[in-house]
Amino acid sequence: MEARPVHSLHIIGSKKLGGAESFFIRLVTSLTNAGHPVDVICRPNSGVFNALKDTPVTVHPVSLRSVFCPFSRHQIQQIIKTIKPDVVQTYMGRATRLTRIPKGSSCKLIARLGGYYKLNGYQHADCWVANTQQIRQYLIDHRLPPSRCHYIPNFVGQQQRTGEKVAPPEAMQQLAANDLVILGLGRQVPKKGFDSLINAFASLPETINGKTLKLVLLGDGKGRQALVDQVANLGLEQRLLMPGWQTNIWPWFQRAELFVCPSRHEPLGNVILEAWAAGKAVISTANDGANELIEHDKTGLIVSLDNTAHELQQALLELLQDPDKRQQLATAGYQQIEHEFSESSVREQYLQLYRACIDQV
Question: pLDDT over 70 for what percent of the chain?
């Protein structure tokens, strides 16, 4: 007998799009496409709201101004009472702290964590989902019941996995057809390590095998001006492109030869999964996410968090000079996506968790 659809409500308090928000959009879209009713609570005119407002997903705009907003807490409870979901899934601190299941409701609260957060605002949940094994262990180490702490990984967008061609963005016109492109992506803040990547790039030759090396850094953030100043001080303005946040990153992955994740701290590393799905070789620092995802010299290259710029430079030079090894690593990474991080597998793991929570007395 086929299992009945599961009605889930997903709540997120972010304003801008990032890795967690992009996965949120992918998961609720996947559940909807598979025939499961989905409602979403998010901030009006946020990145999530704008991405979902014209889709089959039912979106409820709520201000979610802060973790102490009583009006938002009341609105969330009223929505739960009205739509009567089977499960409510919250993402990160603001949404989790504001969400309380109303008295008399039978739905379960699932808190999803993508980092090593302070847990005092999460303990009222019925169970917790971590997107890495290390985060799950962190929850257990902080005395949350192991039987209610679950690991479910992320999956990446279908467009990347199908190889669908899309129109290049206008900013890409600054790249010449013969350029050899290295790609970095993420919030431009110190912990993402883009300063080390820029220093590594500065020590590379300007050309390899007759092609001009270019570094593209996608993203924005509070540390952007410091990176712009660093680029100017190193005289890299003609070889380094910083086009800001990009709504569609896939054309940039298509254009790049390889991807670098230089983060000093990265609990998961959605960008690594995205690069693999795009068929690109990956170099990463030995952050937590990379250590869990990458098998060194098989699915990518990992460099130390110490002396990072020098080790990144050596790894970049190795792969830029060896197209066969680039392809070998890219193929192995893509195969890992197929085996462990497919959309259907991750969606089914969430549905199994939802049904298990529903069955709990």
Answer: 96
